[in-house]
Amino acid sequence: MIALKQRTAALLAERIAAEFPGATLTADELFAMFEYPPDANMGDLALPCFKLSKSLRRAPAMIATALAGAFEGNTLYAKVEAVGGYLNFFFDGAGLAARVTSEVAERGETYGSPMDGVGKTVVLDYSSPNVAKPFHIGHLGTTVIGHSLKLLHKFAGWNCIGINYLGDWGTQFGKLIVAYKKWGSREEIERGGIDSLVALYVKINNAIAEEEGTALADAARAEFHKMELGDEENIALWKWFIEISLAEYEKTYKQLGITFDSYKGESFYTDKMPAQVEKLREMGLLKIDDGASIVDLEAYGMPPCLILKRDGSTLYPTRDIAAAVYRKETYHFDRMIYVTSAQQCLHFQQWFKVVELMGYPWYGELVHVPYGTVSVNGEKLATRTGNVVLLRDLFAQAIEKVKAIMVEKNPALAGRDDIAEQVGVGAVVFHYLSNNRIRDINFVLEDALSFDGNTGPYAQYTYARTCSVLKKYNGTATWRAESATAEEAALAKTIAMFPERVEAALADYEPSVITRYILDLAAAFNRFYHECKILNCEDEITRESRVALTAATNRVLGTALHLICLSTPEQI
């Protein structure tokens, strides 16, 4: 579709130059003006000539009529009409189907990719759970949005570095060490894993709240301070807690098909922060405010960025600045993406500005991608009080529901357990990524586990349906028909839209663009499937053409599902 619009814009630019002497409208400017009509009766593509009226000094209707002449005898479209100030373009369905099926077959897995990231590196910081706490629904956003953005950038040709910036440092470990020494045992932790660590963490927080944070809170700070000084016993416990946590996290990452290139967490940057603090001091950017060291950002409409506490200990901005410098020196990135809650927007605005003030020329390559908060049945999540819905439990519920449906509808299906996991996990991920990332989400479990309507299982089932058709045909096919039904034309048009949807998802860092496209493609294919005979079509040319359209759907739908972290089972 992009290529077709570019050719159309070029023809229009030539026509404008000929009909309107002195006009300077470029093909790129015209390309940006195209719209997709809401009703197919109004055309497949439209140019609203109202946008040209001022520069061309003509009424929109006159401009539309003049420009329509550029397409006389042209085979790009079935017809071009000037109607009420709009120039409406109607595709030749068969011609579009021939072009798009040919291009998909030729480009294969790269169809839809803009390939504009070749030779560039992007680093993505996402997921990043706090050690000793299990994955809950609140972690789903950063994890699947982040990985989808990694897959999208990789698809566009970028060299991608995925970093899991573990929350593996801080006073919470002092609390956990106190709780372990007071109430825990190695046998209990080995047996219960991360759940036992969470139980200890909740227990000590409740105890601190009850006694108003006196002795136990002081003890926790003291144990963490011992960690900072390198106490062997506490460091050994800390490493053990991390080991237990990563073993649990890997189970979830495996279900999601996610791997990382680095697990360097907050602790890794402990010895790298002093150099950045000293640089700030040497540049005269640090100021003392009530004993704390800050960078004053009042001139930029922001509160001060805290770099050091009164006791000289560092804060999140200090670590993030040190991490960014290290990553630039290590990976030489062209873009650095952080996927975190929208609640951290100010934090990123502040330290991005500090990086700029420090004179680092790559400050403009830092990108914060925020997402909305998640509640469950209207209630906020909080690990310290135990009010969470664990992701593993949600996945397990979804998987069991899929198994029950399979037993009822397809009891002889081979590999049922693996397929149920792919579909069950996919249902939860798809449900989350159906929403614009910045929206707050109230996760209602019944909705997340519903497989009716516009859902992940519906999309995966559609993909499996295309696989079934292609397996039965067992051969290659080319579009050869000279005409197309309305359903064939609509499906071809939807397939042709994929490159634009990929570009939009990349430009806005918005995986939900792909999710919505998947639903459009699945709906278009299922209308085609129900209205048009494919394998049992008596006409050989029509049959082959429809198989070619099915093959193109299979390729594009499979690619799109992969881009939002969903598996593509060939049968369900």
What does this protein look like?
This protein is an alpha/beta fold. Helices cover 55% and strands 10% of the residues. It has 22 helices and 13 strands. It has helices at 2-19, 27-33, 53-56, 60-68, 93-107, 137-155, 171-183, 186-192, 194-210, 215-228, 232-256, 273-282, 316-331, 345-357, 391-409, 416-433, 445-448, 456-473, 486-496, 498-508, 512-531, 540-563, and strands at 45-48, 77-83, 86-91, 121-125, 159-163, 286-289, 292-295, 305-308, 335-341, 366-371, 374-376, 379-380, 441-443. Strands 5-4-9-10 form a four-stranded parallel β-sheet, sandwiched between helices. The protein has a three-stranded antiparallel β-sheet with strand order 1-3-2. Strands 6-7-8 form a three-stranded antiparallel β-sheet. A hairpin with a 2-residue loop joins strand 2 and strand 3. Helix 7 packs across helix 9. 43% of the residues are buried. The mean pLDDT is 92.
Number of helices: 22
Approximate strand percentage: 5-15%
> What is the C-alpha radius of gyration, as a whole number of Å?
28 Å
Strand order of the largest sheet: 5-4-9-10
Low-confidence stretches: none
Report helical residue fraction: 40-55%
What is the terminal-to-terminal distance?
A: 32 Å
Main sheet specs: 4 strands, parallel
Shape: globular
The overall pLDDT, averaged over residues, is 92
Helix/strand-derived category reads alpha/beta
Total number of strands: 13
